[in-house]
Amino acid sequence: MMALARSVGLLALLVSVQGLTREQLFDYGIRVGDKILDSGTDSVRELELEQTLFFFKGKFDKVYVNTNGFISLAEPTGESEYLGKMPASFGMIAAFLGDLDTTDGAGYVYFRQDKSPDVLQRVAEHISQAFPSDDEIEPTHAIIVTWENVAPQGERGLTVIIRKIRNTFQLVVANMKSASYAILLYPEENMQFGSTLIDDEDQPVEVGFNEGKVPGWFSWGSTQGTYYRITEDSEESINALAQETNSGRPGVWVYEIGTSPLFTSITPGEVTEVTEVTSVETVVESLVPEPSSSTPDEPQHRYRYVQPQQPQNPQVLIIDEDELNVDVFSYNYETCSSNKHKCSVFADCRDYADGYCCHCKPGYYGNGKDCIAEGKPQRMNGKVSGRIYVGDSPSPVEFSNNDLHSYVVTNDGRAYIAISSIPSSIGPSLQPLPALGEAIGWAFALQQPDYRNGFSIIGGVFTRQAEVVFQPGNERLTIRQEFSGIDEHDHLLISTELDGRIPEVPQGATVQIEPYREIYQYSSSLITSSSRRDYTVNMPDGSVRTHSYLWTQSIKFQSCPHEEVLSAVPASQQLSVDQIFVMYDSGNQLIRFAMSNKIGSIHSGIPEQNPCFTGRHGCDTNAVCRPAQGKDFSCECASGFTGDGRVCYDVDECSESPQICGPFSVCSNQPGSFRCECVEGFTFAGDGRTCTERPVDHCQRGTHDCDAPQRSRCSYTGDSSYICSCLPGFSGDGRACQDIDECQLGRCHSDAICHNTQGSFTCQCRPGFHGDGFSCTPGSDREKTACERHREAAQASSSSGGFFFRPRPAVGQYVPSCDAYGAYEPLQCHASAGQCWCVDSSGLEIPGSRAQPGSRPMCIDHSVAPPLIGPTPKADISPLTPGANLLFSQSGKIDHIPLDGNRMIKDEAKTVLHVPGKVVIAVAFDCVEQMIFWSDITQPSISRATLQGGETSLLISTDLGCPEGIAIDHMSRNMYWTDSILDRIEVSRLDGSQRRVLFDDDLINPRPIIADPAYGYLYWSDWNRDGPKIERSGLDGSDRTVLVQDGLGLPNALTFDPQSRRLCWADAGTRKVECIDPFSRLRRKLTEGIQYPFAIVSYGRNLYYTDWRRDAVVAMDRHDGMEVEEFLPQRRSRTYGIAITYPQCPAGVNYCSRDNGGCSHLCLPRPGGFTCRCPDARDGSCVEQDQNF
Fold first, then answer.
1. Is 50 helix (H, G, I), strand (E, B) or coil?
2. Burial class of residue 1179 (count of CB atoms within 10 Å of its CB; 0-12, 13-18, 19+)
3. 156-190 burial string, b = 16+ CB within 10 Å, else e?
4. Which residues pair with residue 223 across a beta bridge?
5. Bridge partners, 498 (sequence order)
């Protein structure tokens, strides 16, 4: 035992009373599935609940999470109506109600729903400890909301942000079958303020439960409900949140907040006396353990010194280490042997006990994943997008994907940034913001002794968010930047987004930025800074104005998780920026910034005089300056260059070492470096360096010799091999497959009719018999159909007079007509009223089909072919036609993914059509002729080709702006499309002839368009940011109406599911998928939090959508909104349109299906009729008329 204590150390179990710590909160963050509330000062997010929440006497199925420290049971009003004015008009659970702020990039609000056993068990423990006399505490659902590092809003808020004064607290709502509880958690060390500024007065925060407005007696009006307040207007009351308790644990408060069916009042926990909390701390006798000779299978002990505390009367126990059950955070247990290729080619990989890390080689600097040569200048490329209001302008200036180029001379810290295509309406006003490029200057700042610039610490992959608050106008601008690392050309890639309002700087004015200093605070994954910047505007009239802005920023990154890597970095470093130059070139629409950057100590002292640290050394721009004693120094050419340091020349590694890249590769020289590329037919092996022959998947490439995909299947077997096999219902060797005529084989009963189909067959008993077609018996005892039961009931009620059935009209008795098979006749008449109407296969009247007495409407035969032979699907799954495929477009091609039921057969995905040099946007499919239709926006056109391949046909190439959506009416043989530049919707025949404009007004950005030919409707959406909407009309353009207008952002994608009769859309602005019944207008949200959808299609149980951010095709269950599958194309680029191919069309016809409805030119159906229309280019033979049925 003594030996064990000597080698392992002394483990002391100290029993003492301690406040709650942040580590003792419920787990939170992205890693446990939390969603993040948008940054702001009054942000709100709706959360639909998976289980009912009981609050006071009410039951609630949704809550609203708010920045200001509460969740509400109804959508909250603006903060000015409740802050300092409680009780509010809406129900509220206030964990820490005040004017809070998360805009500085350091504060976040996380939230989720959780049903995991470990969380529910912990919830039950808190409740049981607070209510020890209660039995059957069995929570089944929890809502966890965490406010992390939130700051108070306002001028005082900016002060505390700089001083790092923030609060972290948590609310857990636990739901059971008939009760709900609230658990409030306040970590003592993380509760650093207790009041916020409201109406310029410092007011204490409030904690409690507000019922909101409730109905008055006899439902006359409403009255203010109960407000159960926990805190008082005193500092002591606020401090008590983290120090006292009603659950036996300091900082933890538990309340019963609702019960059903009876509720009396909010009930607090009963245990106000603090229960002793046991804390485990390890005191190690030796800080550095002796070297171990244990094998890899033996446990490796790691020790951390903990300063022992001195609690009163501590109880000290000596225990064995094996008795401790400690969960240790694990970064990555992989090793360099399989991950070395993830390091830079200029880095070494080093194994650790629980993972690996990359370290740049001598002469290079970075984080190991990205390494660049010391002294070598660095170039950066990127894009800048923005939506900025200038001055008091009511409309923003918007720009997208403007080029950003930057160049940094790293041996003197001088950075140059240029952004192109900046309009003159905003260019002058951006001059005060060299901060747009500050991260570049910080990343490659000139390093003072013992200090390191950004790139040498975190490399080139990080995100940066900055908030700028201008004085005195309080304009705000948010800057978001994504640094994506070094590309194959050794350029650092940057993406920038700007959003907000900035003060106006007049045309012709110049701006001068004063030198400034900024302190950067470093941690393992977050870097923060804040400062005040002063600038001077020299007006065109010669006057001078001085302004300033407050600046806060956060930089997030992922570092190597081993302490020694970051141990040499000071916790605080100061960035000094001077020699700042700004200019807007109105002639070329360029804004330019330049600045000199140094990184060093936060303490003032004698500046370094060595030229290497001042930047005044005269070394070549491709050289590193090496300091010596005093002011002596030497210049050394950077790696990849040669010379005396004063003048350096690029080394051509490809010429000097021809074999440097190895076999089957080509070497390309670059300044200071070189690049290896595998020759055609070869690819890099797992090490990222060796070129090996690339196996060819002929199935995916489409270079196999199997029969058409409707008849055969190509299966990749590896090593460029594949096999062909015929699909069920076909025979042959897979390269040539013929349909099997099952009717010739006598598969059906002798009293049944056999219908052969491609790849299958159907059997149907003859009139007078019933059965499934395989077994038919005389019809006297067969089960009656719905129509026959309906008819029998009507006739029985007529004779008895006891039952009166009257669907409509209201007079007399209606007896339905049934055909020989027992199905409803398409035409139904009411003998007494003399009226007739059309019905569908269920006997329901087709709206608009009822004729006047004495006339009969023309009804469509709605007989449906018998079902395909095969297993009967489950009731909640729509039957899927065999041979269906997903089509989706990328720039220059259209790919397809075979579908097996609801599953994508990913390994059989391949390219159907190559259109080099084109940008294919919309994709559609004609199931009758098996044709693919697509639009190209490079040279605007609409084309088509057969699914089996062959020559493409250019349908429309004139009078087009940007055709972004195509819809096919396969029944009427018409094509519809949207044009987002010409702002109109057009129709034509499927061959592109007989064009006609349906709509050219009240359209801004029409994109998706959907045809419902069976019922005669046309749907489309307009993603106009100032007024997005979803509309509907008849396929002839009649009865145009807005279906959805509220709660939309960018409704890019639209689809109609004929099975459920639901219209669904994916919104890239709200990041939601929603559906609506177009007739009842009932709207339902399926999911939220998706990335950037472009197009969507419905098939079977799933919705499939393309996503720009993920470069993927995503499958989602349309019933519960859960993502079920993802397909990532081999070539990662934006995915655009998506469509479904069918081997045969769904059953059905419309009024234009037969003989073009008798029209001379365009036959355009609508609900209850059709319209004959002429093309815009008319001739004398065209006749227009309307037909109603």
1. strand
2. exposed
3. bbbebbbeeebbbbbbbbbbbeebbbbbbbbbbeb
4. 214
5. 386, 479
* Residue from 996, 1020, 1048 nearest 1177 by CA: 996
Fill in the DSSP letter of residue 137: -
Instruction: Report the half-sphere exposure of 234 (CA within 13 A, side-chain side).
Output: 5
> Is the pLDDT score of 1186 beyond 90?
no
The token duo for 551 is 């600046």
CA 986 from chain centre, in angstroms, equals 32
Q: How many CA atoms lie within 13 A of 805 on its CB side?
A: 16
Distance, in Å, from the CA atom of 439 to the CA atom of 382, rounded to the nearest integer, reads 13
Residue 198: in which H helix or E strand, if any? strand 195-198
- Residue located via tokens 């940054």: 39
CA distance 78 to 41: 11
- Geometric angle at alpha carbon 720, from 719 and 723, rounded to 5°: 105
Closest CA to 1014 of 1158, 848, 1148: 1148
Q: In the 8-state DSSP scheme, what is residue 27?
A: P
| pLDDT one-digit tens code per residue, 676-725 | 888 877 777 655 567 877 777 888 778 888 998 878 889 887 777 888 98
- How far is it, in rounded angstroms, from Cα 456 to Cα 449? 14
CA distances from 761 to 313, 726, 736, 747 (A): 87, 16, 20, 9
Give the rounded distance of the alpha carbon of 273 from its chain centre.
47
Q: Which amino acid is at 248?
A: G
Q: Is the dihedral of CA 96, 97, 103, 108 positive or negative?
A: positive
At a CB cut-off of 8 Å and minimum separation 6, what does 899 contact? Answer: 880, 884, 885, 886, 905, 1099, 1100
Nearest C-alpha neighbor of 973 from the set 990, 956, 985, 987: 990
How far is Cα 414 from Cα 772, in angstroms, rounded to an integer? 83
Q: Which residue has the tokens 């993502």?
A: 1123
Task: Identify the H or E element spanning 1074.
Answer: strand 1072-1076
pLDDT per position as a tens digit, 163-213: 457 899 999 999 998 899 999 999 988 888 999 988 878 889 999 999 998
- Interatomic CA distance for residues 983 and 961, integer angstroms: 9
DSSP string, 1128-1148: --SS-S-EEEEEEE-SSPPS-
Other CB atoms within a 10 A radius of the CB of residue 875 amount to 5
Question: What is the helix (H) or strand (E) element at residue 243, kind and residue range?
Answer: helix 235-243
Report how far apart the first and last C-alpha atoms of the chain are (Å, whole number): 97
Distance, CA of 399 to CA of 686 (rounded, Å): 41
What's the one-letter identity of residue 275? T
Q: Beta strands 364-366 and 371-373: pairing type?
A: antiparallel
What gap in Å lies between CA 971 and CA 61, rounded to an integer? 43
Percent of residues in the chain assigned helix, strand, coil, to nearest 5: 10, 45, 45
Global pTM exceeds 0.90: no
5 phi, psi to nearest 5 deg: -65, -35
Comparing C-alpha atoms, which of 508, 555, 568, 494 is closest to residue 529? 555
Closest CA to 964 of 983, 951, 950, 977: 977
